């Protein structure tokens, strides 16, 4: 017997997190609670059981931004990391979970997007059958099993930039104050405004992360001034996810804050027994992407786990895409 719904046994959920090959921090009960604590997210958690055993969980949030009109055209459901699935989940159970997900979100979001951090190849046909399309998307996984492995894989130019930056006065800041987090956020916000040209999540998310045991803020300082940093989340001492990173590059001679920021996360991983550093995305393979070129030089393995997309309202979806293109051109 297959049952889908929003009542999920917490003990079974945690057991599934410990055994599933698709487990990731963003599908955990802790992450769901974190999403639920933020007023600008509408969090959801959906589950499926087979013969009384929990076989799948989908954790995500509905996001909107801007005024009333923009919020109407920007509402989307994001499942970061991809679904949490038992290795022996049946195709029928997964199908019913995905159909339930579509129905549950049909009036709340314009589209649903699963941003996969693991390989879902064996489940692809069920997603397609359920009305989702597969969108190729790249990522880097950095092997942090030891410092020797990291040093062997990292590019020569990255090693040089790290060494030069530290020699000329930059330093790592591993226990920042909330005011220093705010300085970091200002740099990140400028990056999103001028280069990425998409809205950055409110500071409240970062302030909330600051008090969470699973979050790590690793900032870069020069002359007692924050010039960059990264915020990562750690899952079960197995994976460290780099959520946001930035730096005041090209502002200081021989100082490379963005490089130091990402390396500080990798360094934290191998120093604390965390075997993988997940860069959380490297763009579409058919498109040139400067961030991918930057990330590649840290020696990670390039993977394509892609995304699953279901457009619930094609008219609003296409209007929204056009609107985003116009905004990026104007900015």
Explain what this protein looks like in three dimensions.
The chain is of the alpha+beta class and 331 residues long. It has 2 domains: 2-137 and 305-330, 3-Layer(aba) Sandwich (Aminopeptidase); 140-303, Aminopeptidase (3-Layer(aba) Sandwich), CATH 3.40.630.30. Helices cover 40% and strands 28% of the residues. It contains 12 helices and 15 strands. The strands form 2 sheets. Strands 1, 2, 3, 4, 5, 6, 7 and 15 form an 8-stranded mixed sheet that branches. A 7-stranded mixed sheet has the order 9-10-11-12-13-8-14, with helices on both faces. Helix 7 crosses helix 10 (257-271). It is globular and about 65 Å long.
Short description:
With 331 residues, the chain is an alpha+beta fold. It folds into two domains: 2-137 and 305-330, Gcn5-related N-acetyltransferase (GNAT) (Aminopeptidase, 3-Layer(aba) Sandwich); 140-303, Aminopeptidase (3-Layer(aba) Sandwich), CATH 3.40.630. It has helices at residues 10-19, 29-36, 68-74, 91-105, 124-129, 147-153, 156-167, 178-196, 203-210, 257-271, 290-296, 314-330; strands spanning 2-5, 41-50, 53-63, 76-81, 84-85, 111-116, 133-135, 138-143, 170-173, 215-222, 225-235, 239-247, 276-278, 301-304, 307-311.
């Amino acid at each position: 017997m297959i049952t889908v719904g929003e009542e999920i046994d917490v003990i079974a959920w945690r057991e599934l997190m410990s055994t599933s090959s698709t487990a990731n921090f963003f599908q955990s009960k802790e992450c769901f609670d974190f999403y639920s604590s933020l007023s600008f997210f509408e969090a959801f958690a959906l589950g499926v059981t087979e013969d009384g055993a929990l076989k799948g969980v989908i954790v995500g949030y509905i996001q909107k931004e801007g005024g009333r009109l923009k919020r109407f055209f920007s509402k989307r459901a994001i499942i970061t990391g991809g679904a949490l699935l038992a290795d022996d989940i049946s195709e029928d159970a997964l199908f019913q979970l995905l159909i339930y997900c579509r129905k549950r979100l049909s009036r709340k979001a314009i589209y649903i997007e699963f941003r996969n951090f693991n390989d879902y190849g064996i489940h692809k046909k069920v997603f397609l059958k359920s009305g989702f399309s597969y969108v190729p998307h790249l990522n880097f996984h950095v092997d942090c099993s030891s410092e020797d492995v990291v040093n062997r894989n990292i590019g020569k130019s990255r090693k040089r930039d790290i060494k030069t930056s530290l020699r000329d006065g930059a330093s790592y800041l591993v226990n920042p104050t909330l005011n220093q987090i705010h300085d970091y956020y200002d740099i990140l916000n400028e990056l999103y405004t001028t280069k990425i040209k998409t809205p950055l999540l409110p500071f409240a998310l970062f302030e909330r992360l600051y008090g969470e045991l699973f979050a790590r803020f690793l900032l870069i300082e020069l002359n007692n001034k924050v010039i960059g940093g990264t915020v990562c989340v750690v899952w079960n001492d197995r994976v460290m996810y780099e959520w946001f990173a930035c730096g005041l590059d090209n502002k200081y001679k021989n100082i490379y804050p963005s490089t130091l920021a990402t390396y500080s996360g990798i360094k934290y991983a191998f120093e604390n027994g965390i075997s993988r550093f997940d860069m959380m995305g490297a763009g579409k393979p058919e498109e040139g992407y400067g961030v991918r070129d930057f990330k590649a030089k840290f020696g990670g393995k390039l993977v394509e786990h892609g995304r699953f997309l279901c457009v619930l309202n094609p008219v609003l979806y296409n209007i929204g895409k056009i609107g985003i293109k116009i905004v990026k051109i104007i900015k």
